[in-house]
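B., you asked whether I could sanity-check this one before it goes into the benchmark set. Here's the sequence:
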Amino acid sequence: MLSLLGRSALQFHPSFFISSALAVATAGCARYSSTTDSEWTPTRQYVSKYREEIARRRATDPEYREKLLNCSRRTRQKYRPTINAKNRVYMAQNRDKIRASVAAQKAVRDFEKLYYAPLRARRASDDHYRQSEALRNWVLKRSWVRDLTWQTHKPILSEKTLRYCSGCAVHRPLKFWWQDKKTDEFLCHPCFTSDWSRALPIGYEDKVFGRRQPTGCKQSKSTKTTGTGPGPDA
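And here's what the prediction gave me:
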């Protein structure tokens, strides 16, 4: 637990970035292999000729590279006690803040496991669920789709409204509903798509989300019975 608090505390403390920068600089020096001046070429655009010359010397001159490494070691040895002391003071003064940060990070991980992980697993294994969610996104993100005609229902998109779902037999506060054309009863999207024979609009009955038809099989706009939007693969 103490190590976890320490790692969390360093994320907030400026000295963490100082020590990280020194470590990166050292690692950068250590990764260079022996390269001659004729073989070396700039790997990026440098802010100045001076910076480019430093990079060239670091890559091609072993003695200069060793000099930079020794300088980094001396800097770390010089400032490490001061940095450690500042970190201890910071942890003592901000213990509640650190605990709150650790708890918040744990809550995010727990929520991901409890909510998003099951959805990803269901999306990977349940084709009907994938098609249903794709239809939802298709209707919500394309205004022209909502002007198409369905056999039994019509989509209703508005501010979040508490309505009674005749399929679930419960009241739900939702923005997106399906309204029966004959009875004016409402269905939530999962209940509406539970019967896939009515889920797709007229003229799009063969649409399969995530699968593109061959170019020659696409229907033109003029052949659609209703709507002014793109073809089924839009």
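One thing to flag: Confidence is low (pLDDT under 50) at residues 1-10, 22-33, 215-228. Otherwise nothing jumped out at me.
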